[in-house]
Design goal:
single chain; 335 residues; mainly alpha; 13 helices; 79% helix; elongated
C-alpha cells in the first residue's frame, strides 16, 4: 500500500471526523449519522495502516480519533447495582470455574508439599534447631503458647481487618505479578506453604498437631482456597505470556488481565469472610468440632457457589471479562 496516496485519499474524512468531534453534542441528526459512518471508516483505515504500512505518527492520530469517536458514539456508561449483581452471580464465579484446571492442581501440590515439609520438620530435630532455639520452640508450641495465643492477641475486629488486608494483598500480588512469567507467584505461594509446614512440623513434634489443626482449619480452608485460586490464576496469566494460543499475545494477555482484576475484587470478598472467621470463630470458646464445622461449611458454600453458579454461567459463555461493548475494539491480525 502506498501510504502517501492513502493519506491523500482519506485525509479529508479524518479532518471531518475531528471537526464533528469538536462539535460535541451540538450535532444535528444528519451530522450524528455522518459521525458514525466516519468512525467506522476511520477504524477500518487504522486497521489497514497497522497491518500493511505502520506509521507511528499517523497510527497515533487515527487511534486517538477512533477512541474519541467510539466514546462519543457509545456514550459513557456508569456502573449500576445490576452490574455488581451480575459480577457476583456470574462473572466472578465463572472466572474461578474456568481457571479450575490451574488452581486445583496448585492446591493439591501445595497441600502435599506442606504435608511433606511438615513431616520432615517434625521428624528431624536438627531442622527444628535451625528454625529456633529449644526454649523458643517450647514457648511457641506449649499449651497457651504463641501458636494458640496468636489468634486472640488483638481485639477480634481489628485482628480480622489486619488478616483480611494481609491476605488480600498476597492474593492481589499473585494475580498482578503472574504476568512476570509465573516466577513471583511461585515465590509467594512457597512462602505460604513454608509457613504452614513449619506450624505442622513444630506442633506435631510437640504432640499437639490436633490443637494446631483445630486452630487453622476453621478459617484456613477458605483462606487457603482463595490463595490457591489467586496463585493458579496468576500462573495462568504468566503462561499466557509464554503461550497466548490462537490470539495475539497482547489480546490474550489483555483478556486474562481483565479477568484477573475482577478476580482480585471477588477474592477480596472471600478473604473478608475467612478473616471474619479467623477473628471471631477461631479464638472463640466454641468446641473444636464446632469451629471446624463452621470452616467446612464456609468452604463447601464457596465450592458450591463456584461449581453451581460459576459452572452454569461459564457454560452460558460467561468468562469473567468485560462485555464486548465495553472492550476496546480488536483489530484484525495480518496473515
Amino acid at each position: 500500500m502506498d501510504l502517501d496516496v492513502f493519506v491523500t485519499a482519506h485525509r479529508t474524512e479524518w479532518d471531518r471526523l475531528e471537526h464533528l468531534l469538536h462539535r460535541g453534542r451540538r450535532l444535528t441528526g444528519t451530522e450524528a449519522d455522518e459521525l458514525v459512518a466516519l468512525y467506522q471508516r476511520t477504524a477500518t483505515h487504522l486497521s489497514l495502516i497497522q497491518s500493511s504500512a505502520p506509521d507511528p505518527m499517523l497510527t497515533a492520530r487515527l487511534t486517538q480519533l477512533v477512541a474519541r469517536a467510539r466514546s462519543t458514539v457509545t456514550g459513557t456508561r456508569r456502573a449500576t447495582w445490576r452490574d455488581a449483581t451480575r459480577f457476583l452471580t456470574a462473572g466472578f464465579p465463572a472466572a474461578v470455574y474456568r481457571s479450575r484446571h490451574w488452581w486445583i492442581p496448585t492446591a493439591v501440590l501445595s497441600t502435599l508439599l506442606a504435608a511433606l515439609m511438615g513431616w520432615w520438620i517434625g521428624t528431624h530435630p536438627e531442622v527444628q534447631a535451625a528454625i529456633a532455639a529449644p526454649e523458643d520452640l517450647r514457648r511457641m508450641t506449649s499449651p497457651g503458647g504463641e501458636y494458640e495465643t496468636y489468634y486472640s492477641s488483638h481485639p477480634a475486629a481489628s485482628f480480622a481487618a489486619q488478616v483480611w488486608t494481609n491476605n488480600a494483598q498476597a492474593a492481589a500480588m499473585c494475580l498482578v505479578l503472574g504476568a512476570f512469567l509465573c516466577l513471583p507467584v511461585i515465590g509467594i505461594l512457597f512462602v505460604n506453604v513454608l509457613n504452614l509446614a513449619v506450624g505442622i512440623g513444630l506442633m506435631s513434634s510437640a504432640g499437639r498437631l490436633d490443637t494446631f489443626l483445630g486452630l487453622v482449619l476453621p478459617h484456613g480452608l477458605l483462606e487457603l482456597t482463595a490463595v490457591f485460586v489467586a496463585a493458579g490464576t496468576g500462573l495462568r496469566l504468566g503462561w499466557t505470556v509464554i503461550d497466548p494460543g490462537p490470539q495475539t499475545r497482547r489480546s490474550a494477555l489483555a483478556q486474562q488481565g481483565r479477568a484477573a482484576i475482577g478476580m482480585a475484587i471477588g477474592l477480596a470478598l472471600v478473604l473478608f469472610v475467612s478473616g471474619v472467621i479467623e477473628g471471631f470463630v477461631t479464638p472463640s470458646g466454641l468446641p473444636t468440632w464446632a469451629r471446624i464445622a463452621i470452616g467446612i461449611a464456609a468452604e463447601l458454600a464457596f465450592l458450591a457457589y463456584v461449581y453451581i453458579l460459576g459452572g452454569r454461567a461459564a457454560r452460558a459463555g460467561e468468562a469473567g471479562d468485560l462485555d464486548a461493548t465495553e472492550r476496546s475494539a480488536e483489530l484484525p491480525t495480518a496473515a
